[in-house]
Amino acid sequence: MRLHDLQPAPGSQTRAKRLGRGIGSGLGKTSGKGHKGAKARSGGGKAPGFEGGQMPLTRRIPKSGFKNPFRKEYAIVNVSALEQFENGTTVTIDLLRACGLVNAVKDGVKVLGNGDLTRKLTVQVNRFTGSAKEKIEKAGGKAEEV
Predict the structure, then answer these.
(1) pTM, full prediction
(2) Number of alpha carbons in the 13 Å side-chain half-sphere of residue 38
């Protein structure tokens, strides 16, 4: 098969219906919509989700929960992931992003205390858990909130 042999599958491409173009077209006058009624009108038909007057599903199901509009969402990094940096490194948000440890920094970066740390690092991020701060300082480093 060559590039010039390519063609659409038979029946996959049909011409658009030309509505309201005279009796001979078969779709003149009422344009295939019949006579009167909601479906014959412009913008006619029923709204999406309309269930024939029955109470719609979206209104039958109870509301639940609460979404806090002021919630802060942090990108998270575990203490064990910081092990890859050399001693004396200042770990910033930009450095974490460059190393691929953080993808989307939403409202900041938070370091969690999962794992162990043996390197002496200065970590500058937005938040730390208590155990993460403790492990960084125990290894001889500094945990600085920015």
Answers:
(1) 0.59
(2) 4
